[in-house]
Amino acid sequence: MATLEIRDLHVTVEADNATKEILKGVDLTVKQGETHAIMGPNGSGKSTLAYSLAGHPKYTITGGTVTLDGEDVIEMSVDERARAGLFLAMQYPVEVPGVSVSNFLRTSATAIRGEAPKLRTWVKEVKEAMERLNMDPAFAERNVNEGFSGGEKKRHEILQLELLKPKIAILDETDSGLDVDALRVVSEGVNRVRESGEVGTLLITHYTRILRYIKPDHVHVFAGGRIVESGGPELADKLENEGYEAYTKGGASE
Amino acid sequence: MADAQNAPVGSTTAGSIAVAAESTVATRMSAPPSFDVADFPVPHGREEEWRFTPLARLRGLHDGTATAAGDGVKVTVDAPEGVTVESVGREDARLGRAGKPVDRVAAQAYSAFEQATVVTVPKETVLTEPVRVQVAGQGGTCFAHTVVELGAFAEAVVVMDHSGDAVYAGNVEYVLGDGAKLTVVSVQDWDEKAVHAGQHNALVGRDATFKSVVVTFGGDVVRLHPRVEYAAPGGEAELFGLYFTDQGQHQEHRLFVDHNIPHCKSNVVYKGALQGEQAHAVWIGDVLIEAAAEGTDTYEMNRNLVLTDGARVDSVPNLEIETGEIVGAGHASATGRFDDEQLFYLMARGIPEYEARRLVVRGFFAELVQQIGVADIEERLLAKIDEELEAAVA
C-alpha cells in the first residue's frame, strides 16, 4: 500500500534577497485510500507544502524527509516524482502555448505509464473522462490552459488526475474560484478517483465548502508553517463555526 | 491565419500602422534601390536597415573588401524533364526584372557575379517533382545570381538548399507568368561559420500564386530580404518562414510586400525559436498598400519563442496604407518565453525536461511546417528541430 511520509519538513524560499522559512517542521502520513484535508489561513504555508512535494525549483528543502513507499522523494526530479506516483493539481495551472490538450495528455500518459497508450482505447478513455467532467470535446484541440476560464482550468486538472491515476494526489485549493456547479463537477471527479481506493488524497483548502462534497477521513489545521491540530471530520465543523482565529494568534502563529 | 489571439504568455507587440501620403518604407532606406554597388554608401551600422546587423561579421560583404575567392560554392541543379537550366552572362535580358537590390550587400552581389543561373519552367508545364538546387559551400567567397521563371499557367516546386561553409551573397528572382503557381523553399542549413546575405524578389503575374518558405537554421550570419511585387491584379503571395536561432547566431529576415496593384493578396507568417547566449533573430515585416491597390487583402505575423536566457529578438512589423478601399490589412507580433513555470507544469505530469521542450517547440512550429507541402522537407525540418534541441541539452 502506497504511503507518503513527511517528517519534520523545513522549507525556505528566497524573497527580496532574504531567505524566509515557510515550512517549520511538517509531519504527515498519507496512505493510499485515505483522504486528508489540510486547512489553514492564507499565508500559513499550505501551498508551499504542495509545491515542495511536487519539487518546484522556487522552494529549498532545508531539513526533514519525504518518502513515497520508502523512496526518497526529495532526491527525485520533478518528472521523476510524477512518474513515482505523485500528482499535484495546481491552483494556478500555467498556459503552455503551442501544445494542444490532446497532445499534452497523451505525452503525459505515455511518460507516467511507461508506454504509449493504445490509440483506440486512449481516445475512448479521454472522451469518456471528458464527458464525465462536462467538458466539450473541442477542448482537446485547444492549447493547454490557454484562454481557459477558471472552471475549465480546474476541470482540466481533474481530467489529468483521472487519466494519470496517481498513488498520491495533492489538490491545491482546487475549489478556489469555482461556482457551486463547477465545484460539484470537479468534486465528483475527485470522488471517482477516490472510490478506486488506490489514491491517497491531500486536499488543501481554505474553505470548508468543498468538504461537503469530498468527505475527508482526517482534517489537519495548518498554521505558521506546520500542522497545529489534527482530528476527524468534526474538526472541519469546528473551523466552519469558529474560523482560524484560535490558530492565528498566540503560540501557534508566527 | 487569424490566430493572433493565441499570443504566448508575456507577449509584447510593437510596430505601427500608418496612413501615409508617401511611403516611409522607401524613404527610411539610406539609398534608393540600384543595381550598382557604387550607389550605396558603405554602411556604418546606425542606418535603419543596418542597425540590427553585426557588420563586422559580414566578412567584408558590406564594404567592398570581400572578393570572390576560393572555390566559393558548388551549385547543382536537379531538374525534372521539361525544365531548362542555363548558365548565362551578366548581359542576359532575363536578369534583373523582378526588382533592384535595396541595400549595399545585395547590390554588391549583383555587381560582382560573373555567371547567373536561369531556371525556366515553360508555360503550361506542371511539374510533379521539385526542382532541387543544391548550393554547397566550399569554404570560399562567392557572389551569385539565380532566376527562376515560370511561364503562364506553369506549376513548380523549387527547393534551394544551402549548406557547407561559405561567404555567400546571392540574389534570387522569381518571375511568375499569368496563372502560374510557384512554391519555393529556401533552406539555410549552413555550417556554423558561414555568412549568407541575399535578396529574394518575386514578381507575381496576373492570378498567379507564389509561396515562399524560408527555413533558416545554420550559419553565423544569415540576412535575407524576401520581397514581393505584383505585375497584374489577382496575384497571391504567401511568405512563410521558420528559424531556429542558436547561441551566437544572427538570423535576420527583412520582408517587404509591395501592394502596388489592385486586388492582390498576401499572407506573411514567420516563426522563430531561440536558445543560447547571444542568439539574435531580427524580423522586419514591411507591407505597403499603395494608393492604387484597392481590394488588397493582407496579413502579416511574426511569433518568437525564447527558450533560454541570453537570446534577443527584434521584431518590427510595419504596415502602411495609402488607400482605405481594401478588403483587409492586419499585422501581429508576439514574443513569448518558454519559462520555468511551463517547464514545471509539464514535468509535474511526468514529462522529462528534454521531452517538454521538444513538445513546446514542435507544437509552436507544427502549423507552419504543415503549410510547406513538400513531405521530405517537412520531415527534415522536424528532425532538424529535434537535433537543435538535443544539441542544446548536451
Automatic annotation (TrEMBL), chain A:
Pfam families documented for this protein: ABC_tran
Residue ranges of domain ABC transporter in the record: 4-249
Segment forming the signal sequence: none
Gene3D superfamilies membership: P-loop containing nucleotide triphosphate hydrolases (3.40.50.300)
Keyword Signal: no
Keywords: ATP-binding, Nucleotide-binding
Residue ranges of the TM segments: none
Matches recorded under PANTHER family: ABC TRANSPORTER I FAMILY MEMBER 6, CHLOROPLASTIC (PTHR43204)
UniProt record similarity statement: Belongs to the ABC transporter superfamily. Ycf16 family.
Protein name as catalogued: Fe-S cluster assembly ATPase SufC
Organism: Streptomyces chilikensis
Annotated gene: sufC
From TrEMBL, chain B:
Top-level taxonomic group: Bacteria
Phylogenetic classification of the source organism: Bacteria, Bacillati, Actinomycetota, Actinomycetes, Kitasatosporales
The protein, known as: Fe-S cluster assembly protein SufD
Family: Belongs to the iron-sulfur cluster assembly SufBD family.
Family annotation (NCBIfam families): sufD
Pfam families: SUFBD_core
Domain SUF system FeS cluster assembly SufBD core as annotated: residue spans: 137-364
SUPFAM superfamilies: Stabilizer of iron transporter SufD
